[in-house]
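Reopening this one. Same input as before:
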Amino acid sequence: MVSLVIATVIVGVVFAGLVFLIQDSLIYHPRRYTEDYFENLKRTGGEELAFQADQGKQFVYVIPPKTGAPPEEVWLCFSGNGGTALDWAVHFYPHPEEDAFLLIDYPGYGQSEGEPSPKAIEETILGAVTAYLARTGGKMKELRPKLRVFGHSIGAASALIAARELGAEKAVLISPFGRMKDLIAPPLRPLLRHRFDNVESLERIADSGLTFKADVFHGTRDSVIPYSMAVSLSEDFPSMITLHAVEGAGHNDILDAAAGEIAAAMGE
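Same output, byte for byte:
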């Protein structure tokens, strides 16, 4: 009996250690680019900007306004954990021709070096905006009123990090969670190292006094991030969040199912 208990404890410790060590590969699914991604970027009139960060060389892809004039709004865009920045150059919604888009890759994704984490992603966001300002000759105080954020899934968490750190006043968020730890079993939560927390980000935005509005789209049949999480966010932050339930949509097909509504929210 004692031996069985000891064996059970050992198995539990080994399992916990394994989860702690491999959780990066469970959370992030980086992909590299093929040449066709860059061909699609060229067709948009976009360009890549490289900059250095603690994680190494990072990339942001800038799609300028089609009008050729200075942008009326500048959108920082973030993919889900299995996507890349340049996916949006292929599959993006119709948008106002007067807006600019910064498609930001996570460390380790696309051409970018390093490994992703909440802190590394925050550093990448700040570096991307700094690189954009250097390229355009702009200043942060002029850019801030134009800043908008867009993100899907873990990209919604990245978008809220950008909003709280840079003072963006508008967001379009697709399939967000509340706290990442709530997506895993309670016994494993203490092992979580990548603590994305949208509730904390929204609380910090609220405490800043910023006038912030977010349109949140979530599929009612999302089996990855439950629709109930979006409901909770809208109930906890009613003055900031407008929830759009997408009936019958799942976690990824929502991007097509609600394409028109999402485009409309971005164009408001």
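So the earlier flakiness isn't reproducible anymore. For the record, The beta strands are 47-53, 56-63, 74-78, 100-104, 147-152, 170-174, 213-219, 241-246.
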